[in-house]
Amino acid sequence: MRCLVVADLHYSLPQLDWLVSAAPQFDLVIFAGDALDIGSMVDFRAQIVVVKKYLALIAARTRVILCSGNHDLDERNAEGEKISRWISEVRELGIACDGDDLSIGDTLFTVCPWWDGPLVKQRISDQLRDASLIRPQRWIWAHHAPPANSPTSWGGKRFFGDVELVQWIMQYQPSIVISGHVHQSPFVKDGSWYDRLGQTWVFNAGLQPGRPPTHVVLDLDENKAFWLAAGEAQWIDLSAPLKRPASYIEKPPDWLISLGRIADPSLGRPRAAAG
To answer: Where would I find the H helices in the chain?
Structure first.
């Protein structure tokens, strides 16, 4: 199984266009939050309509997982906590979203909402507890905020991660956690697009403008993770211990060449390095 991982597209239509075109080459697209942009001049309701149309196009091409991020919150629940009502509506498109568990082969995916208060946080805790009872060997979470005190949540001056997520990871030790939220982590000193807490790999692709978006590809059959950004093409071995820096992609696989991401293999060996 090959998974395309993105987050923090923030209503970038060129990046969403690319995602639609790339989706058929993957068994699963994992969108780890912040599809919308609360700072955009485009009306929030209009953003929702457009993004849902894009998601329908992607879901017609492959399976999709979508978790909410802090930019996706459009309503308050009865208890006054912010939630993403519109994301729950994409379930009718066949998309696994906040609060869902999705089994594909020998892998269980758990989709966590953005939490804004104790009640939603408790729902995540209950969701993880229940999923742990049926978990196979490979268990992957989508959770917009990365863990606290991890290079994947380092913003250059301080960490922006989720302390609760660290506790959940240490309790359940999932195979992989997919996050976003901290845009600059892969591009600043002491930050990174990947980390490992115990037996759990954590990923944050980061954010850059333009098409295509920065993204991570999980090749679960080969047990490898690839990170693609402007001028950067790296990979790590998921079956090996944590090692820094990551390896540069010198011999890109066919699927990567066909994406048009590395037309020239020499681009797999940039001078700049990201941890």
So the answer is: 13-22, 44-59, 85-89, 118-132, 163-172, 254-258
Looking up tokens 């090996």 gives 240
Bridge partners of residue 76, in order along the sequence: 82
215-219 vs 224-229, strand pairing mode: antiparallel
Q: Given CA atoms 173, 179, 181, 183 in this order, what sign does their dihedral have?
A: positive
Round to whole Å and give the CA distance between 202 and 214. Answer: 16
Span 48-93, pLDDT tens digits: 999 999 999 999 999 999 999 999 999 998 889 999 999 999 999 9
pTM of model > 0.90: yes
Q: Which residues contact 149 (CB under 8 A, 6 or more apart)?
A: 159, 161, 166
Q: Minimal CA–CA distance to 32: which of 61, 8, 59, 57?
A: 8
Task: Give 96's DSSP letter.
Answer: B
